[in-house]
User: Which sequence fits this backbone?
């Protein structure tokens, strides 16, 4: 494991959200014993908050975060102690919302760079080629770097395809990848493709900590599943998960659930 464990030191002076969540009232430590750890829990459990705090304390790159000042998160992260086998700066922290914002920003960057190049063509038409090339250099570099990473551009693919392309382009062996509900942009078939991609990364010494509601991702072969609805959080089997049991019985007999709505 890259990240071996986290321990949480409670601060009784901290009141309100998120400190009063049952998760943080009961949490003492989590141990990561496998390359893939799946965190499971109901909405409002504190999965996302815990992931963000781990990522902040680990110094993980966050892909296009919001403008929230994150003061509560910063305070919470300081109460976490991380134990490493090998400290790494490779990898990143990503939420589904962050990814959507990133795609939008990348598209805007490409459009801005193209417009600036058009303006330079007009502004420098009576100047030397050298002066024009200097003025164009940063905008051409922006376009080149985006095209090197994402080929034709993330904006020309479906949301799920963009997500998979993004991972393939940004993956580095030996990285720590902290993901919050990565299934959001993915169809069931694309979720299977994502599992295949994770397996390739695992073989190159990557570690993943994933919070998800998807029974498909929860079924990742050999993953450790930690149920945050248990207090304190505890490892559990795939078959014992409420997400899995409800999904299975619903698919077997949808009318059993829908007739009561």
Assistant:
């Amino acid at each position: 494991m890259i990240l071996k464990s986290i321990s949480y030191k409670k601060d009784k002076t901290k009141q309100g959200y998120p400190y009063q969540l049952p998760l943080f009232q009961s949490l003492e430590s989590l141990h990561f014993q496998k390359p893939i750890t799946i965190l499971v829990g109901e909405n409002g459990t504190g999965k996302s908050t815990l992931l963000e705090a781990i990522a902040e304390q680990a110094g993980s790159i966050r892909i296009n975060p919001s403008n929230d000042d994150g003061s509560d998160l910063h305070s919470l992260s300081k109460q976490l102690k991380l134990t490493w086998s090998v400290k790494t700066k490779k990898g990143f922290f990503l939420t589904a919302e962050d990814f959507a914002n990133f795609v939008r920003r990348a598209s805007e960057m490409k459009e801005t760079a193209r417009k600036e190049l058009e303006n330079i063509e007009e502004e420098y038409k009576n100047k030397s080629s050298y002066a024009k090339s200097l003025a164009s250099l940063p905008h051409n570099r922006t376009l080149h770097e985006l095209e090197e990473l994402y080929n034709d551009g993330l904006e020309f693919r479906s949301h799920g395809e963009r997500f998979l392309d993004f991972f393939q382009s940004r993956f580095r062996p030996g990285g720590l990848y902290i993901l919050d509900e990565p299934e959001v942009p993915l169809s069931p078939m694309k979720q299977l493709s994502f599992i295949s991609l994770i397996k390739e990364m695992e073989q190159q010494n990557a570690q993943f900590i994933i919070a998800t509601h998807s029974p498909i991702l929860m079924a990742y072969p050999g993953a450790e599943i930690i149920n945050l609805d248990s207090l304190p959080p505890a490892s559990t089997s795939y078959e014992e998960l409420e997400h899995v049991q409800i999904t299975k019985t619903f698919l077997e007999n949808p009318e059993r659930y829908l007739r009561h709505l």
